[in-house]
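Example record

One chain of 329 residues, shown exactly as stored in the release files.
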Amino acid sequence: MSALDFLRDTSGPSVAVELAADHVSAASVETRAGAPVVSVHATEPLPAGALVPSLTSPNVLNRSIVMTALQRVLERTGNPRRIGLVVPDPVAKVSLVRFEHVPARAADLDQLVRWQVRKAAPFPIEDAQVSHQPGFKAPDGQEFVVSLAKRSVIEEYENLCADAGAHAGIVDLATFNVINAALAEMSSEQPPAGHAAVEQDWLLVNIAADYASIAIMRGTNLIFFRNRATDSEGTLFDVVHQAAMYYEDRLQGAGFARAFLTGSAAAQARQSADIDDLRRNLQDRLQKPIEAVDASRAANLTDRITVSPTLLDTLAPLVGLLLRGRAAA
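Predicted structure tokens for this chain:
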């Protein structure tokens, strides 16, 4: 599993698949006239309990139901043999670690990262799949975005795809790829709007069926990340408010140039929380308009695709994975 890879220029797959608690989705992006275009997409709902994201426990609880949904979306996207796979945020623990001195050898850096995060792992580090990506470079050291997951959990997702005939060459977290989509969207804008993707701070709140994640970005670098289960105590706005306070007090935050709330169109129908109130409260707190991540600005949609807020929410992590490498170009 990779960490935030929007800075890596890679020739990735043309089809991305997301396995989430409430749906399986897929999309294909191709290049037309030099621009990325979403050529086809598919979504199949999942019943509650078929797939339950967890850091430590088995995730795929009804394999036949999930497999059927996966096979349907793969068939509708051309039965690809190689895919990028988006998995739910709760399957990994995300940490930001900083080193004053970074080892020159990759093997030494890997060992140092694993040693740093081993105490936070809820299982033996030998059972972990650990990945890291360089992040913000501070005066007192280099920061790394580290993702730690239980190897057997990631293999559940990979094996499911393999049994459906698709090799998951890339496995990455949902919110990381919504960030990629937002970066790709901002990089397509004309200054000054797109300038936030280059060096200013911005906020993303990504809401899923069973969790929400809060990410604070400094340009293209992640400087804060928190994942929260839907059934946690307190409101999501309270958590975002706490994150904003931490940003101002501890991260020398001077204010957000942009603020995004995504996933909310589908979440409105699934959760009892009033998303409109959340949006209003965020706007009052941040004194910024709250935007949606619009994947269609990063990759055009063909004429036969009907655009809706729910579709844009579904496409965001898929397009973000497929455009990784282009987002920071």
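Notes: Confidence is low (pLDDT under 50) at residues 3-10.
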